[in-house]
């Protein structure tokens, strides 16, 4: 019987066949120690040539998707360390291909509701990890994500089965002029003209949609998210107080393969069962009418029982699927879970045969039975959001640090509500526009229209969209007024930041003050999210109530009202219908432009890169998580380089790259982590991630990160709309933050700057002389040789237990 070998305590003594690195390189004892600066770019990406300032670069390790590059002349720097005395070897990690590509990737924006719902999972308040409400919160988000998949499948069924196969194909006036629908027309008398057979044929379309999402989820996991983390010494975080530990430091955080596979099986099953339920609803009424077709009625009930049984199994899988982050979850799913989608496909095939069975005299008229399911989905989503808000409130009361948490812990429920709203707009917009195209010049649902059109709820939802846009416009106007007020207040202080000998320039002052004021709008994002969510909840509830009270379109529901009210209702419905459709088209256009236009990529990419940073914990059809490839890449590179060459390393991250850098440092062994310094600039670590994701990037987590590192410095500017201060103080009294940096570097024209200096904002931090000074200080502080383990300190931040004091950070501007 074989016995496991004991785990070494020193990563340099581990067998290279079982660890993440080779043996250390034998260097002369008097050889100078080498330093490495690992550069990580931010949102929008850049080339290795731009990052290294040299057109000649060489790939060191990696592939076409993500790789590390050096200047050609630095490729063999480890073999001649004497050439780099006092100067680090610069190496660029380029990960932009993980989030960009050709214009076809714009279609991923259709998955925005899934991505936003996944974000809600990570926005839970920073309550203790063992709090019971944590599991309830995660379960509610997973259930809400499942309803979004059902909504998508229902929307596909609405277009293919209801509007096309049931309404238009069964109406000769609608079929006229559409040769591709002629073989389905009852006037043709063909085999496919029966309503059940038309529906069975049309069900292929939503089935292909669900199958495409399943394939895309499986393919992106293999391409982006299958990188395993390097092995670590067990208990490597034992020196971190419990209150300062974060799940980002757990070995299995960036490797949730089993969870994604289980959720993918459950959501695929739910989508297939939604199609099956629509087919059953269409045939149930005819089979039970007047006692006819008793055999079909019995088989229909059996099939309904099978659908219910599979739906219950799907709910159980979603209920029991939770993240396991302590270690990489590499176990395979049980056969029952893997067989669930195939069982649903078999049941769907039986239902398609049952639906296509001959029913003499049957015909289609009116909307497809079961259209009220849209209202049921909306109501259930509202209940889940309210339960999520209550759970978040309980967690927020138990939170460790809630001083700057966005929306007082209600960020997750607000974002979840917006995910439901976006899903409703996308599904309703597609259905409305498709119905308008199918019925020609008429208006669906109105008098003399060839088809009834989409369900009433979609029309009510269209009617409230203009009101929602008015609220958004009011918020935008208030934001503009705030910019003007802040600009006027800040303009008084701008000249005092520069050399008094420079002549005042009012236009230049207004430009700088305006940039600072606009950058401060980022801190007002919670107000916009709260206002939009509140109005969406009220208007959505009104739309559901209106659809329940009447089965007519909103415009016709006011026929007895005064002409002004009637005209206003019809205008709101028509305008809202066009706005819903325009929203879908605009979303696709913006996505396509974002992948072709670099400036648009930087603008749209801010929210996109934040959303796809997190693993798919709630929805398996969300866009892929690039960090599950980038973070292991950076962790492997830092661990192997420091172990092989016994050198000093500074990881330098800009913008989103600083988040990746911090996440990678959390994944290191404590020994390796203490040999690494972190330089961040333009960093959203505290300003965005700390406020919106407090359980993972809150002040206790950032304090614990700095405790186990050699040093950490952060550069920021008032003019930066993304980056901000970290608001931590080092244990020796020095602050982590270096700033605010002066921007622009020169106010007017001087002997050194004869032309006006550019306002840099979020970019080009390396142009500031402070950057080189801080980087040199970090490299100098990394002592030679292998540092000892840090002494265990109390959770307060000082050896004597005194708490660490935060810096003042960003001013009111």
Structure description:
It comes from Streptomyces nigrescens. Keywords: Membrane, Transmembrane, Transmembrane helix. The chain crosses the membrane at residues 136-156, 199-216, 265-284, 296-319, 339-358, 370-395, 415-435, 464-485, 527-549, 575-595. InterPro entries: AB_hydrolase_fold. Helices cover 50% and strands 6% of the residues. The protein has 813 residues and is mainly alpha-helical. Among the domains are: 11-40 and 46-94 and 626-781, no CATH class; 465-604, no CATH class. Strands 2-3-4-1-5-6-7-8 form an eight-stranded mixed sheet, sandwiched between helices. Mean pLDDT is 80; it is low at 1-29, 552-561 and 785-813.
What would the keywords be for this entry?
813 residues, mainly alpha, eight-stranded mixed beta sheet, disordered C terminus, transmembrane helix, membrane, transmembrane, AB_hydrolase_fold
